Predict the structure.
Amino acid sequence: MKLNTNSNVYTICYAAVMVIIVAFLLAFVASALKKTQDANVANDTKGQILTALGYDKAAINVADVYAEKVQDMVFVDGELKPYEGSFNTTYGSLIKNGELHVFTATTAKGEQAYVIPVVGRGLWGGLWGYIAVNETKDKVLGTYFYHESETAGLGARISEKWFQDQFIGKPIFGEGGEVVLTVVKAGAAHAENEVDGVTGATLTSNGVAAMVKDGLTAYKEFLGGAKCAFDKECEHSCEAECPNKGNCPHMDECQGECPNKAECQCPEKPCEKTDVEQ
Amino acid sequence: MSKLFSDENKAAFTSPLNVNNPVAVQVLGICSALAVTSQLKPAIVMGLSVTVITAFSNVIISLLRKTIPNRIRIIVQLVVVAALVTIVSQLLKAYVYDVSVQLSVYVGLIITNCILMGRLEAFAMQNSPWPSFLDGIGNGLGYAAILVIVGFVRELFGFGTLFGYNVIPQFMYDAGYKNNGMMVMPAMSLIIVGCVIWAHRAYNKEEK
């Protein structure tokens, strides 16, 4: 008997059987491989963090170096606490929920650093990255960026070393305390806070710029943290010196070497203008 | 052995490399030729991935060809290709993670590549597995060849590099040479593909 492969019954049965077989096959493959894949992803994430710190992840044992050099911390209520849970591989939703992870680490050059995870959107899909900042939290020590599905050879080039290395040594905050670190058109970076984008990938470059800005802004309390906590102490001493604090428009700029209160002084110029004697 | 490499089978392998090239003659797979050819390395990776996937999906469809109901054959082909690509990318992710990261960008492009569907429909549905396998390899390599040509031209003139290494010497730049920004744009690859097709057809016309 020859099967009539054009009959409705055959077609429906064929489609049903095919779908069931493929579904089981995919489900089996996915669940059988999940553990190894997750381990790979976690290891790769650690490798990305180490890359931001200047290590060459191809040349080291990522798990060992990570365990030795990096601590996973959470920024809660103004201070860093060790993170107790299992290692996370995505940080977008955590940051949104206010769980701010910070990795305290030592760079390949031996400097103390904080690594901050950032997430954003490129042209076709998500972007993410890790930014290592120095101990005083005002300059970038290194970055790592990657993407889900940017165009190969164009937007995908943000994952290349030359692009990421441009960020090294760049200042994070401007005079007003806002994030100034940004990506501009390829070849147009002249100011200290600018890095060149990727030629032919303006939208991806803009995505990186937005990601860096939003990501660092989300951590502003942490990055500006030492300054804020110190400013409260500083204010008292400043108040003592400049009783007319209300007239001192630049009180926010009152800064010095924390925690040395003796050096806390009201900014000279603004206070001179306040005419305390009158 | 002689049967495995009969003239017919040889033709299945060699004709897509030149006279029946999938990009230059059948004009298939143009979209991905635009997307991944701004540099040489992604062009090669994409070409090889398509070669492997075309060959194996050709074999699977060829094995199933007598059972596939005619009215849903395109859907069956699509399911086979998508399942194959997904399983391969899952395996890569578990066992060779670095390669999978490199290829993740291409997975979507491979599934939707018209060459795959074109070969499944035009060849694997009528032929036995071995010639289908050769046809898949031949078409994949024919596609890869065009990608490499376009990638070579675009990377050389667009970035002054090949495989990421500078090849245009500094004194050329000092003398006023500039990288051509147009080459980096996708539109330029369409023009280059057009030139390749032109040269290819002019050459083959002479031969005939």
Notes: The beta strands of chain B are 161-162, 165-166.
